[in-house]
Specification:
- The chain is of the alpha+beta class and about 90 residues long.
- The chain is about 25% helix and about 45% strand.
- The protein contains two helices and four strands; from the N terminus they run E-H-E-E-H-E.
- A four-stranded antiparallel beta sheet has the order 2-3-1-4.
- Strand 2 and strand 3 form a beta hairpin.
- The protein is elongated and about 45 Å long.
- The model has no long low-confidence stretch (mean pLDDT about 90).
């Protein structure tokens, strides 16, 4: 299984969607390296960045699910850093 490092940029325009957003991020917690959230009170939005190291299909799945939450916009940027792991024992090649 190959993993990639990626950043998902999230804009929260509807604060009522925050609970759904947090629940979804919790489901992918094992793949999340870190998360930073910035409330931008003047514009009444929140800006969140989520750093991940996961297989590309998992990153795509999370990004797609985030984009379907009302009041949430999400975009993903992928690094070219790909880690190959041996699926049998989890060791890194």
């Amino acid at each position: 299984m190959d993993t990639r490092v990626a950043i998902i940029g999230i804009i929260v325009e509807n604060p009522d969607s925050a609970e759904t957003l947090n629940r979804l991020l919790h489901q992918y917690a094992e793949h999340i390296i870190g998360r930073m959230g910035i409330p931008y009170r003047r514009k009444a939005i929140s800006i969140i960045s989520v750093a991940m190291d996961a297989p590309q299909d998992i990153i795509n799945a999370l990004s797609g699910k985030l984009g379907r939450i009302p009041g949430i916009s999400a975009k993903t940027a992928y690094s070219n850093v790909i880690t190959r792991t041996d699926e049998r024992d989890g060791s890194v090649d």
